[in-house]
Specification:
Distance between the termini: 19 Å
Helix content: 40-55%
Bound molecules: zinc ion
Shape: globular
CATH class of the largest domain: Alpha Beta
Structural class: alpha/beta
């Protein structure tokens, strides 16, 4: 529902059309008015009128990008990146990262804050608020230009946006948006980090895929699932906890209370635990990466074992939901070059033939920023149409 307009009146319909045209320009722009009319159900006159309103309000701009078809060079329309901005925040186990996006989802600037073990939301979140203010101030952006803030968290998020439990962070029942609300008068979205990663993968890498499962492998394993083009949240927003599918009946005790869960066998925590049996005292993933890059074969068996379990779990996931695409991401991305061969071998051995022959298995190209890009996209999709419609309505 667009903010500030009523269903059923002609103004609402008009603003809805303007918003739809804006979203087409966002997806396909720079695009000419003629191409917009040619590829939609709108008439040339309707396109011209709405584009004028969008230009007048500063949501789009004219650009000369595009190829001439002979005669006068066509003027193309693109989203005006400076019209509004989005702050994406990702709370991780050891740090909070922030990424300031313009309206075209181009990265403007970044910040990162370390979290010390045991620090709770009362210590961490106010620092994230300050960092967001600093990013905006340094970029010369006023608060009314902020379209929204999107915050990804490593745990279960209830439908009202409360972080219910983040096991690897140790935070429970946290209203993450609260410290931000007092400072920023804009929409604030909270989302599970794996789900945001799935949205980021679809938006930035695979825009035409309808059924996608994104596997975020970090300290634990979470999955973001998109079905028929929509994010699947499940009852009470709990969908995607495939990290707790039991794969080894008498396996290691998991913090969820179960035994042999996928994440006890194939998370980055499991990888580090196995690597320390080869080289005791490895501090963290960064140190393991440096050692692995020596390519001396010491960790071959470790990568093979963890890769095997990643493939086993991926087969269970794919057999269960039948996606078109399975994307592996998360901080584990830095190790996929060593994990990949055994992962794919185990996946192909365990997945049902009809699943195996259909699903495409990919490894993210977005490094560890997929979740931040997903939050940027989520804020844009949920709030740009409402802000735009409200502004056009107010301009009448
Ligand atoms: Zn578990």
């Amino acid at each position: 529902m667009f903010r500030g307009v009523r269903v059923g009146n002609s103004g609402y319909i008009r603003d809805m059309n303007a918003s739809a045209i804006f979203q087409l320009i966002d997806r396909y722009g720079p695009i000419s008015r003629r191409e917009l009319a040619h590829n939609t159900r709108y008439s040339a006159a309707t396109i011209t009128n709405h584009v004028k309103a969008l230009l007048d309000a500063g949501w789009v701009m004219e650009t000369d990008k595009g190829t001439s078809t002979g005669g006068r060079r066509p003027v193309h329309i693109a989203v005006n990146p400076h019209k509004a901005y989005i702050v994406a925040v990702e709370v991780e186990v050891y740090r909070v990262r922030l990424l300031l996006f313009n309206l075209s989802r181009g990265a403007v600037s970044r910040a990162s804050l370390p979290i010390r073990p045991g620090q709770g939301p009362a210590q961490v979140l106010p620092r994230a608020v300050s960092a967001a203010r600093t990013l905006l101030a340094e970029a010369g952006i006023a608060l009314p230009q902020l379209l929204g803030i999107g915050i990804a968290v490593p745990g279960q998020v209830s439908p009202d946006g409360t972080l219910v439990f983040a096991p690897n962070l140790g935070w429970k029942r946290t209203v993450v948006r609260e410290p931000f609300q007092g400072v920023f008068d804009c929409p604030i979205l909270i989302e599970n980090e794996a789900r945001a990663g799935g949205i980021g993968a679809r938006e930035c890498q695979y825009p035409d895929v309808r059924n996608l499962a994104y596997v975020s492998v970090k300290e634990g394993i979470g999955c973001g699932i998109l079905l028929q083009g929509s994010v699947y949240r499940g009852s009470n927003s709990t969908a995607g906890e495939f990290g707790h599918v039991p794969l080894q009946p008498d396996g290691r005790l998991c913090h969820c209370g179960g035994r042999g869960c996928w994440e006890t066998l194939a998370s980055e925590t499991a990888l580090l635990r196995a690597a320390r049996r080869v080289v005791p005292g490895i501090a963290d993933g960064h140190e393991l990466l440096q050692l692995a890059q020596l390519e001396d074969g010491r960790f071959d068996e470790v990568f093979s074992d963890v890769g095997y379990w990643l493939g086993q779990g991926a087969a269970a996931l794919a057999n269960g939901i039948g996606p078109d695409l399975l994307v592996f991401g998360g901080s584990m991305a830095r190790f996929y070059r060593w994990l990949r061969p055994r992962l794919l071998q185990a996946f192909h051995a365990q997945a049902l033939p009809a699943v195996r022959d259909h699903v495409q298995v990919e490894f993210t190209h977005m490094g560890d920023e997929g979740t931040l890009y997903g939050m940027g996209a989520l804020v844009f999709r949920q709030h740009a149409p409402a802000m735009l419609a409200g502004e056009l309505e107010a301009a009448k």
